[in-house]
Structure of Glycosyltransferase 61 catalytic domain-containing protein:
Amino acid sequence: MEKEPRRLIFGSTPIIFLISLTLLYVGVDFFCGNKISVDRWVQYFSSSEATFSKTLEDQEFMNFHLARLVRGEDRRNFETTGFACDKAIHSIVCVSNHPVRIDNNNMTIYVPSDSQNETVIRPYARQEDELKVITPVHMIQYLNTTITPPDCQYSHGIPAVIFSSGSTGNVFHEMNEIIIPLYITTKQFQSRILLILEDYKPSFIAKYGKVLSHLSNYAVMNPGTNRSVHCFPGFVVGLKYHDNLALNSSEIPGGYSMSGFKHFLRQAYGLKFEHVSQIKKPRLMLLSRTNTRRFLNEDEMVLLMKELGFEVIVVRRSKVVSNLSKFTRMINSCSVLVGAHGAGLTNEIFLPSGSVMVQVELLGTEWASNTYYGDTARAMGVKYLRYKIEGEESSLTKLYGRNSSVVMDPGSVYRNGGYRTARTVFLDQQNVRINLVRFRETLVEALSIVTDLDR
Ligand SMILES: *[C@@H]1O[C@H](CO)[C@@H](O)[C@H](O)[C@H]1NC(C)=O
Ligand SMILES: *[C@@H]1O[C@H](CO)[C@@H](O)[C@H](O)[C@H]1NC(C)=O
Ligand SMILES: *[C@@H]1O[C@H](CO)[C@@H](O)[C@H](O)[C@H]1NC(C)=O
Ligand SMILES: *[C@@H]1O[C@H](CO)[C@@H](O)[C@H](O)[C@H]1NC(C)=O
Ligand SMILES: *[C@@H]1O[C@H](CO)[C@@H](O)[C@H](O)[C@H]1NC(C)=O
Ligand SMILES: *[C@@H]1O[C@H](CO)[C@@H](O)[C@H](O)[C@H]1NC(C)=O
Ligand SMILES: *[C@@H]1O[C@H](CO)[C@@H](O)[C@H](O)[C@H]1NC(C)=O
């Protein structure tokens, strides 16, 4: 992943734009160097959480926010035993407010208790994702008369949050299963936590360092290299998951929404545009895939976009764009994002609200397109337009024939061949030659949405 070259190609982007972006970076970096952001002050004066932090002792602050991560029976357990786990369909999150010892050598946590028990979880937001390499964490509740835990080598005054970066590299999974869950799980601690990142990858830190440093005041710990025993006044193991690229304010810990998360991302990455009306000239980013689901007449598509009045940025292989600091600002400066169904569309999360995302729905991707990126766009205040291709536009017509069930009835491939077969056919074998006459209509609609803002 780290080895991949960064190949950002700008479809004849005016030089002025590049220069102004450079200036913007300098400005933003300068501003971010200032530790106490406006965000913090606003939060300080407006949120009841902050008032708590001011008046309660550190221990009470920690207890209060740890308790928010468990509910009902689990909350009562937490209050009586100092340890509890919230078990949901996808994620398991365990918390403790007892003085614990974490042995990084084998990720074993010793929790002093009145009874003996052991709980093992894989600290990843989607537990059922068996393909991911996630180091398990053992939490041992022990009676101090029966077990003597190893001595502390380092003591910390704040709780630890343990999670895994899993097998990274796919922006959808990173956002869906790590970044959003991490935000949901830790934001209320107001950076007074220490992050312990299992299965640590430098590329993950390079990419999401700004998010992590906006959630914790301390350097991220890599237990793979720091093989000591650490004492903490409490912990969170695992990350809370709500839904597909989603935040639900009624779910644990309560009160988090997509708009809050987008605000947080703007702060973390120093993004300039909150609403599309702040962008003067309509600018369109085309995510150009190079392996699968390629646009076979991409040059013509770009010409059409320019002819309609868009400034066009073509990004080849969005996945490669690992310098998120740079890339997020670029997306945030766009009023329209266009791409074929695929993980790169996750980047819609950086668009200003009121902007438009156009998803090119290939044959057999209708359900996934809508579920994964359409619903999310709507939840984040981005207008969602579908461009559903017709049989003739798909390369599968050549491959299987115009009257084949693959082209005529994609659903039957799922029903008869199963998910894996369908995946191979529709996601791996399919490219598209866009019908420019029909596509123009979609682009015109997108243009009118982002230019006609008085409606
Ligand atoms: C972890 O290591 C400690 C000390 O070496 C040992 O006592 C404990 O049983 C180990 N835990 C696991 C889960 O292997
Ligand atoms: C012990 O831990 C297991 C696994 O987390 C849990 O199902 C069980 O209820 C616990 N038992 C007690 C007595 O707490
Ligand atoms: C065990 O815990 C009890 C109650 O917290 C405490 O009074 C006692 O000193 C502890 N014993 C050891 C050996 O640490
Ligand atoms: C391990 O972490 C402690 C406390 O955060 C730090 O002081 C120490 O230098 C680290 N050791 C290594 C080998 O990274
Ligand atoms: C949010 O969570 C609540 C409680 O779990 C649930 O009833 C509701 O359907 C969820 N909302 C969405 C949009 O999923
Ligand atoms: C990302 O881009 C920014 C701005 O151009 C630059 O300052 C930074 O060093 C880059 N980060 C990495 C990890 O390449
Ligand atoms: C596809 O079906 C139509 C109508 O049934 C038929 O006219 C046409 O010849 C068929 N085309 C091919 C390539 O089989």
